[in-house]
Amino acid sequence: MTQMKETSMTDSSITAGTTKGAQVELDQLVRTYGQVRALDGFSLSIAPGEFVALLGPSGCGKTTVLRVLAGFEQPDSGRVLVDGNDISDVSAQKRDMGMVFQSYSLFPNMSVINNVMFGLRMRHQGRSDSRSKAGQLLELVELSDQSTKYPHQLSGGQQQRVALARALAIEPRVLLLDEPLSALDAKVRAELRDQIRSLQQRLAITTVFVTHDQEEALSMADRVCVMSSGHIEQTATPAVLYARPTTAFVAQFVGISSRVPVETSGNEVVVFGQRCPIRTGEALSGSGHNDALLRPEDFGIDIDPNGKGFVTHKSFLGAITRLIVQVGEISVRVDVRSDQGADIELGTHVTPKVIARDVLVAPRVAAAPVEPL
């Protein structure tokens, strides 16, 4: 694949701001399939020009949200509003939305430029104007030299860039991306991820991106909406979502967290003998038997021959080294600087200490074994 250059913010091939993003409101959406409640009162507000990622495991309802927004499915109840107008009963063809699928969905019997022109021709734009605009978009996604080829002659990354150009050609007010990168290899995925984000910011298109890949969501979106069982667990900026998860589900789905059984008392919890403030979050067990959820960077360690724990695994990850520390029956992940980690051998006795300013606490569940990394 040809190395893609960074898209210039001053490139005049497509005028910045040509597409004005729309305000989107998803209001109390409910969608059921038999006994399965795919959406359970789902509500989300998306600002004009905002890039929102719907993140969650398979079956959480994120693709259903996208299909209801696109008009491919009707909710059992609830409303879809764009710029304050209820479009719940408007057909998909009239919603002024562009969609890019995981499977590319290009027309195999059409050349690249004709694929990009397709939506424009369906809207009765002249052939000359359609070809000119399609050419500009192919230049924008750096495929001008591939315009006469057919989809089977392109790589997967190139096909997905054609699909993106085709979706942008109609100047949609809302762009919908349904796991468009999941079929690509890691290097191409990273390159296309950056280009999609650059184009979205430049054209100011309100964008909804469905993914189960937390790295994609955190690196691309203005806000990330984490879903579980048809509802929202938390919606926040990537930085807040990672650093300040409000539920155990988010803490364990986004990033890595270790669960430590603790006893709570008032607004404090004791972790390995250390008293820590409790972060506001989910309702706790009235008995005081709960779990603290801590990121690897929430811990520090003191090397101590009489320490409460010992190192059972050690993994070099570049600037940091990740340790697994066994304390009694509890295993926790601890990140240390690699220059410090170089001197720590397996079996080294250490005392873990909490360095986070507060701790997320959730009702206790049976602990699963901690795997390396």
Q: What topology, given as strand order, has the largest sheet?
A: 6-7-8-3-9-10
**Biggest β-sheet: count, sense, barrel?**
6 strands, mixed
Oligomer: single chain
**Overall pLDDT metric:** 87
Overall body shape: elongated
Low-pLDDT runs of 5+ residues are: 1-18
- Taking the alpha carbons of the first and last residues, their distance comes to 32 Å
Q: Which bin fits the share of residues in helices?
A: 10-25%
Gist?
This protein is an alpha+beta fold. It has helices at residues 62-70, 112-122, 127-140, 156-169, 186-203, 214-220, 238-243, 248-253, 338-341, and strands spanning 24-33, 36-46, 51-55, 77-82, 85-86, 97-100, 174-178, 206-211, 223-228, 231-236, 258-265, 268-271, 274-279, 289-294, 299-303, 309-316, 320-327, 330-337, 349-354, 359-363.
Describe it.
The protein has helices spanning 62-70, 112-122, 127-140, 156-169, 186-203, 214-220, 238-243, 248-253, 338-341; strands spanning 24-33, 36-46, 51-55, 77-82, 85-86, 97-100, 174-178, 206-211, 223-228, 231-236, 258-265, 268-271, 274-279, 289-294, 299-303, 309-316, 320-327, 330-337, 349-354, 359-363. The protein is α+β, with helices and mostly antiparallel strands and 373 residues long. A hairpin with a 3-residue loop joins strand 16 (309-316) and strand 17 (320-327). Helix 2 crosses helix 3 (127-140) and helix 2 (112-122) packs parallel to helix 4 (156-169).
